[in-house]
Amino acid sequence: MLKALCIMERTAVADIVNKEGSEVELSGWVHARRDHGKLVFIDLRDRSGLVQVVFGPDAAGAGDLRLEYVVRVKGIVQKRPPKLVNEKMPTGHFEVSAKELAILNPAEPLPFPVDEPGYDINEETRLSYRYLDLRRERLARNLALRHRIVKQIRDFLDHRGFLEVETPDLTKSTPEGARDFLVPSRIKQGSFYALPQSPQQYKQLLMVAGVEKYFQIARCFRDEDTRGDRQPEFTQLDLEMSFVEQEDVMRLNEELLIELVRTIVPRKKIQEIPFPRLTYREAMERYGTDRPDIRRDPNDPDLLAFCWVVDFPFFEKTDEGGWTFTHNPFSAPKPEFMDDLLHQRSIPDILTTQYDVVLNGFEIGGGSIRNHRAAALEAVFGVMGFAKDRIRENFGHMLKALDSGAPPHGGIAWGLDRFVMLMAGEPNIREVIAFPKSGDGSDPMMGSPSPVDKAQIDELGLELKQRNAKK
Ligand code: ASP
């Protein structure tokens, strides 16, 4: 027989339930190990699950196995004796009687157990060994859930004619609310790119370009103090549509949210459909917050209470006594306030087309209809006290684009991490991000941020005030 024909195909652990009596080859990690002298039992783990493997007295090497060794096992799938059935394990009616064992790689003792949820392990330690932390079933499940959510979003939007378009990560610093992460340019010394706080401007430019329906699973960067549940980089489902009104964007997003819940987490119950709507004022009066938790029973972990919050004031006072936007400088006012905006009068009364979608007290998304006419966008910056040349310098490209036949358009962005967190029932977004940053914005596993060689700093034409660069 040809040698190639003798090579067995790897079986996924979860599939052994259909292979009673057959010989299988499994590869994975030693998840648990029980040495009974003559018999050694291991729970072998691969991405699909766990299975018990039994090594008899003549199984060479089984005694050497330790936790997290990577092994390949050949053996026969057999039914477990009735009293040894483990109902808690999907493969618990079966085990594999090993005939051959190969140790593909031994492993050092673990810094922490990976066979439990791991909530009580110090987070810095978990993040330092994230590649081990991600081996725990809970996190593996979260990654898979996130994948399914993103895939479903893509399919849903694809069916409705949206194009997924990538936009740059190296872009321009504009005053958009948060602090920018800056990237020094080597070629144009003294100039900086900014990492995008969101693809807001690009997606609007795509509307000017005639894309009509855009979306992106987009990474956003905001250099803010990482308090609570924020991350310096996070992911948005970002979308934008042309020739739409507020209702169109809200309806599409509501349909998508409902479909995601029904198909991906069907055990969860949506409290009210259509999602109730509150004005900003109602939310503040009734709940004292613009992201109200309207759950009738907050103790039910499977209850999802979505609502929309609308009619936000466009502007709020700054500490210095001027005006700034509450959400997004690119938003349009509600049509009945357009005149006031253009004439820059009755500023505190102007309401924006902003709509936020809130779930169980978390803002999971927000968007608006945009100013597709340059004069309206200029007026927004005028209210904020920007001089004409500053507006031109920062946003000239947008004004020019709006003057080139920009269609009416609007969109939304979801905080995808937060949405996945709520679907997974996790307490914070770090549990649903493969490689999150720790509380101070650092990555203890990679050791970033880190000093760089002096030569690299010099090449950028920069000089550090405090020389902590490596010599
Ligand atoms: N770009 C906005 C944000 O990041 C969302 C939007 O209005 O589409 O909050």
Structural features, described:
The chain is of the alpha+beta class and 471 residues long. Among the domains are: 13-105, Nucleic acid-binding proteins (OB fold (Dihydrolipoamide Acetyltransferase, E2P)), CATH 2.40.50; 128-312 and 354-372 and 407-432, BirA Bifunctional Protein, domain 2 (2-Layer Sandwich), CATH 3.30.930. 25% of the residues lie in helices and 25% in strands. It contains twelve helices and 19 strands. It has helices spanning 3-6, 123-128, 130-133, 137-159, 200-208, 246-264, 280-287, 338-342, 374-383, 388-402, 416-424, 454-459; strands at residues 23-36, 39-46, 49-55, 70-79, 94-105, 163-164, 182-184, 192-194, 213-221, 233-242, 269-270, 277-279, 303-304, 306-310, 315-317, 323-325, 355-359, 362-369, 409-415. An eight-stranded mixed beta sheet has the order 6-9-10-19-18-17-14-12, with helices on both faces. A hairpin with a 5-residue loop joins β15 (315-317) and β16. The longest helix has 23 residues, at 137-159. 33% of the residues are buried. The model has no long low-confidence stretch (mean pLDDT 94). Aspartic acid (ASP) binds at residues 198, 200, 328, 366-368, 411-413.
